[in-house]
Amino acid sequence: MNTQKNAFAPVLTRAAEAETTADPSAVMTLLADSDATGGALTSYRSTFAKGAVGAPAHFHTKASEMFFVLDGSLQVLLGEELTVLERGDFLLVPPHTPHAFAAAPGDTADVLFVFTPGMPRFDYLRLLGRVMRGEASVQEIKDSSEQYDNHYVDSPVWQQALAAR
Predict the structure, then answer these.
(1) What is the C-alpha to C-alpha distance for residues 45 and 70, in angstroms, rounded to an integer?
(2) What is the mean pLDDT of residues 18-24?
(3) Which of 154, 152, 141 has the alpha carbon at shortest distance from 59?
């Protein structure tokens, strides 16, 4: 019998009621932000259009990022190596590890993302959607690096992969 008191209530997000944010290349379904999970995790689902670019090369200092491919395939930069995750594949990226991702060339991708420990990221995803739609500036993303623990890096390997698309 578990006598430990939970730091948060169970979290249930119904698909029909989940908030979504979209840009021309992806739809992000916001599932659970850190404030709802007692800081344990943050999770969302991204459905990428065919060949759509997800995130540029970046790393997190506090959170590990988990990827689970629900459908399609996802091209991922992990450090300086490129790999393709297929349906059912799982990847855990530890803090301070540069990574980037995009739907694999010629394919779509449906991916569940989980960050642990959690931190408020839904506002970042909303901002990202506004930037991609031309409603906010890229500078706003750059200015939010510390707040959302997204630290962008230059990756010639990733730039070359994107140029080859």
Answers:
(1) 9
(2) 91
(3) 152
